Amino acid sequence: MKDFFKVMDMEQVMALRARYRALPDEAVPVMETLDRVLAEEIVSDIDLPDFRRTTMDGYAVRAGATFGASEGSPAFLSVKGSVRMGEVPDFAVGAGEAARISTGGMLPEGADAVVMIEHTESLDETAIEVYKSVAPGQHVVEVGEDFSRGEIVLNRGRRIRPQEMGVMSALGREMVQVYRRPVVGIISTGDEVIPIDQAPRQGQIRDINTYSLAGWVRRAGAVPLTFGIMPDRPEALLETCGKALAASDMVMISGGSSVGTRDYTIEVLDALPRSQVMVHGISISPGKPTILAETDGKPFWGLPGHVVSAMVVFAVIVRPFIDRLSGLSEDLEAVRAVPARLTRNLPSAQGRVDYVRVRLSAENGQLHAEPILGKSGLIHTMVRADGLVRIDRDVEGLEKGEAVQVIPL
Amino acid sequence: MKDFFKVMDMEQVMALRARYRALPDEAVPVMETLDRVLAEEIVSDIDLPDFRRTTMDGYAVRAGATFGASEGSPAFLSVKGSVRMGEVPDFAVGAGEAARISTGGMLPEGADAVVMIEHTESLDETAIEVYKSVAPGQHVVEVGEDFSRGEIVLNRGRRIRPQEMGVMSALGREMVQVYRRPVVGIISTGDEVIPIDQAPRQGQIRDINTYSLAGWVRRAGAVPLTFGIMPDRPEALLETCGKALAASDMVMISGGSSVGTRDYTIEVLDALPRSQVMVHGISISPGKPTILAETDGKPFWGLPGHVVSAMVVFAVIVRPFIDRLSGLSEDLEAVRAVPARLTRNLPSAQGRVDYVRVRLSAENGQLHAEPILGKSGLIHTMVRADGLVRIDRDVEGLEKGEAVQVIPL
Q: What is the ipTM of this complex?
């Protein structure tokens, strides 16, 4: 048997991420930052809140005045006035006094707690009974309790969620520096592959990878740029690769990476200027015939033509490279993974990492991962799958009931 | 103590979803369908594949000709020709014959299996030795093995992932019917709330909810439409509510829904034409002072002003209503939830459902949920949180080590 591939371990391939840096940053309105990656450290320039505010509707009081109050023996307080929302109260609250206050209002001078309106009874405009005692600070947010001036609120490299949009708004950040989204060029190859608006003749198949990979690129927070289907001829492929490289931060060709009569990808990648093939084969399944070159400083992938292999390689290998270009600070795969238990034994070949498609079901708060078996050329296995389970290189297989980590698909 | 709210159980509120239907559908290019909800049943009008294709590079053979072949005793086959990709082979393979074939190629008449190239040795242009036997059908995808003609491929109401984009492409679906995305109007209220480009004076706070809720609406696959900050005056609010209703499929006002001196939301919702308050208070925490009206056939929410309460109510209550308008067929909350174990005891009040913010960490393949305690007015608790844990109504609390379901944030 010949050594058809210069096969590399997955860990060696993943280590190549270190060659790449986050793309330049750009300023974006905070309203448009969902799922973008923060390119600056957000430091609070204010105390948040910068006044003592209440979290309840009720009466601002001195807590001491309520001590011992109960339904049977209410405390009796005189109402000094009402706090107007958004304004500094122009009066103070003394012992035996209270001020009407609504959620979010500023505590008057002298008050240190708020009694919920439900625990009071208004006797008339100027007097209330309080049925429950409050502790100092109760129902009050102190100055700087959320964030204090000078505090680091959000770190660079963080994926922005709705709550991060909220906190940046609280700090008055109309514009935020985020990393530019990677543009990923997508090229399909194969003389048997036809555009989706054509009817396949016998022996032909419509282009699946352009669309599913574009979906994956979007899901990874990047921007797909498609270049259609190239015939398996080096000259045509070379020209398209050059165009794709010029317009993208990373390029993926799918198809043509098996050892076959029409395997021109390596040839083309070698022929591109400032190009070096770094990986020719990865010891994973599916996805072994994956190529990674570096061309003009950019990652250039030759993905398997099999639709399932291409998607699996994208999910477990290409995506972490996109995360790197996106400026994401952590490897999020572990966070994305979901724990589950296998529903049956899974054999595996040693010497390679296996990724098995699974379907998830929940029972008594436990997720079960049911392996989906099927040839890697069959897209229906991916449609049925909810995730991938990894079987490590030096493991002979996994047993029924074993705890596994599921990478969502 | 007065009955300040006409409080409803969460289940009663969720049952009100049945009043709403999916929005009308629209045709969208398959390339733009990621995360959209399918509004038609996708049925295969072809066999996929519609020819027998190989999943490997190698030689198409009659399996019988390889039986008993081994390294020591190879089978000897004559090479009849090469299969051209995308074309119907113009020759047949007989007993003792083989045809060169690349991944994705069509099997010639007579062949029923493929020998991987790694298990052969080419003797000259016309003869090979085969070192390993193959079974009939090995490395071959049969006609219709992925999808057969007339088969339901994807159901209506399904969220479209990259693999679904791929399968629709395979079937030649350039345009796909998806449900229109709900437009969700967002109004902030509160005299203490100021636009984010202004510097707050004492007693004022910048508008957080407009931005965090817009982020949540996007995350739910809907389109946010913001109307800024309304002062707590019924006339102004009424006018803006009317505008928001006309332009949206659902409206959310945040703030002003507590029982307080400035509680005009109910008043305004009552004053709108064809409007009925359905829910005034929900027995959950945080989020009790939530209002749901139906106005002109559309859900109209009064969310708490507290930033955390507003987000929690959105995540656990409003979002399922958006899913309904989006045409999503299943309640996906269970699927979204991730199993974990609590790191400490969590007390809870009976008679209401509690949602506790938690931070997740992984250890030995097990996720641990660490409760984040903090006042619901503090946004930093949401920034630190990875998810929410639900404590059911009639439960006194949860114990350290207990299995919980975490709703991701």
A: 0.93
